[in-house]
Amino acid sequence: MMEREAILAIYEQGPEAVVELVQTLYAQLEAQHKQLLALGERVKVLEERLAKNSRNSSKPPSSDQIPPKPKSLRHKSDRKPGGQKGHPGKTLLWVEQPDEVVTHKVHRCNGCATSLTGVEASDWERRQATDLPELRLEIVEHHAECKQCPGCGHRTTAAYPPGVDTPVGYGPRIKSLGVYLMQYQLLPYWRTSEVLSDLFGASPSVGTLYTAVEECFGMLSDTEQTIKELVQQASIGHFDETGVDISGKKWWLHVACTETLTHYAVHPKRGSEAGKQIGILPEFGGVAVHDGLYGYREYECEHALCNAHHLRELTCIEEQHRQGWGGRDEGIAAGYEAGSGSCDRGRAELSGA
């Protein structure tokens, strides 16, 4: 701040000196005002960046520093709980040819206690119980014939069937069940071994289960290739990627799917390099629905944003910008409308809103 004496000294120099001082001070104030505006915008951007998480943006859950409180995007319905009118129910059906029939005999009259042992039944009531058969291991011993040729003396042994490779080992059915529990029900190796032990008394080791997974992987190579080709030919495909931990390092699980087909692949990269090596997107000719990751735009197919990400962006608009329309029905409708176009158009509509 200028001292009083300095201001009076400038005043004594005449009007031009005062005008020059005012202009200088005004220029400084204008520069400071612009700087404050710029800093305010930067603080706003940083605050919005900190406030974004996997619930209100396209950020993956693995990037959340503090897990956000869940918030349902569903709206309250006027329907009553439970099955709706016209909904096809599911119940057990009567089986005309049961595996076993058990007859429960009447020995005495419930009225007077007279013995009915020699009386023929006049009718039967029937009920059916659907249950599992007794869970037990089946041990199959394989005998391979050995014959010696009377002509040359060579000894020939019959071939064992596939999967019978050791003197004592597990058969293909129990190994298939182990693979199903691990790969579809997502049980760890040790829990899979525990389940098989509890149910059947068999405790295949982690090494045995790992080998079973490898064998299954090899046998499914043709099936995987067929799935990739069918997804490439689909009119609409859904693509996504999420972080996974593999041996302490972050990899990415890439998903490509249609209504009936799903292909998974893991890769150390998230973007276009992974897509090129997996091989589905470079040959895909339909509409690719995804989260708007920049790497997807390198492919020449049509693009559309996943509506789940539109709804997250609308949640951000409602919470961070205090615009209530983002959480109302018209906001959700805008999100769905944006999702019907290309990735770029969808983002432009949301940005304009």
List the keywords.
single chain, 353 residues, alpha/beta, five-stranded mixed β-sheet, two-stranded antiparallel ribbon, 7 strands, disordered C terminus
Short description:
This protein has 353 residues and is α/β, with parallel strands linked by helices. The protein has helices at residues 4-12, 15-51, 172-183, 189-200, 206-219, 221-232, 272-278, 307-320, 329-339, 343-352; strands at residues 146-148, 155-157, 236-246, 249-257, 262-267, 287-290, 302-305. It has a 5-stranded mixed sheet. It has a two-stranded antiparallel ribbon with strand order 1-2.
Polypeptide structure, described:
The chain is α/β, with parallel strands linked by helices and 353 residues long. Among the domains are: 169-219; 306-352. Helices cover 39% and strands 11% of the residues. The protein has helices at 4-12, 15-51, 172-183, 189-200, 206-219, 221-232, 272-278, 307-320, 329-339, 343-352; strands at residues 146-148, 155-157, 236-246, 249-257, 262-267, 287-290, 302-305. It is elongated, with a radius of gyration of 36 Å. Mean pLDDT is 84; it is low at 339-353.
Question: What's the structural blueprint in terms of helices and strands?
Answer:
Blueprint (H helix, E strand, L loop, with lengths): L3 H9 L2 H37 L94 E3 L6 E3 L14 H12 L5 H12 L5 H14 L1 H12 L3 E11 L2 E9 L4 E6 L4 H7 L8 E4 L11 E4 L1 H14 L8 H11 L3 H10 L1
Parallel strand pairs: 3-6, 6-7
Antiparallel strand pairs: 1-2, 3-4, 4-5
